[in-house]
Amino acid sequence: MPWKLTPLLLFLAWMAYQCSAQARTDLLNVCMDAKHHKIKPGPEDKLHDQCIPWKKNACCSAKVSQELHRDTSSLYNFNWEHCGKMKPACKRHFIQDNCLYECSPNLGPWIQEVNQSWRKERFLNVPLCKEDCQSWWEDCRTSYTCKTNWQKGWNWTSGSNKCPTGTTCGTFEFYFPTPAALCEGLWSNSYKLSNYSRGSGRCIQMWFDPAQGNPNEEVARFYALAMSAGAMPQGIRPLLLCLALILPLWLHE
Fold it and tell me: Residue span of the signal peptide, if any (predicted)?
């Protein structure tokens, strides 16, 4: 009888839904497994200056947020001013980039495992809102650097990053002729220039007003759901196979 199959079909559908829902949960409100990240996100009332937007739910500590604002932070001994004084308008973007990297719990859909001595995870191809990337490039185009990829290839013999032999200092616009070249190339494709605008719910905002809530929560949910939906056919295959096997029997009842 067809009605006898109803409990089985409902159970299989429920199991498929539960698997997909769990996948989405695993991508939300998480911290990377990296050098200075907390294990789990939580409130941090004393975050410093540009990291304050994440104080209600952060993967960084107050101490880390303070170090992120130093020209040569003790966190990584990385010097932004390796080619002379960086303009303040430019520097604020790098501070905000660091705050997003260290503090955001909304990057789960883009976290990837890596085999590096100082971290086990990184994020890759985070869709950065086009206005954030454009303003970063505009404010930094006349500051100076000597490399297109800041994640590797430095001379660390002094204990902090120096320009490698054979390179010369030039403007950001020389090394990064477009906003995409800067945002995507700077940290080995950590970011990807998005076609979406701030407030669209489809791109990560580096800058936001915490009084209006964290817009990146919605963005993370959207992409986590999309990733789960993309993976769902494999999870549902056993259900479909079961239905294919029992459907003839059901029709001949």
Answer: 1-21
* CB 38 within 8 Å of CB 57: no
Could you give the CA distance from residue 200 to residue 107 in angstroms, rounded to a whole number? 17
Q: CA-to-CA distance for 82 and 98, rounded, in angstroms?
A: 17
- Phi, psi (deg, nearest 5) at residue 91: -60, -35
Hey, is 40 helix, strand or coil?
coil
172 vs 75: CA distance, rounded Å: 24
Interval 124-147: pLDDT, tens: 999 999 999 999 999 999 999 999
Give me the pLDDT at residue 6, please.
53
Q: What is the pTM of this model?
A: 0.80
Q: Give the three-state DSSP class for 48.
A: coil
Helix (H) or strand (E) holding 250: helix 216-251
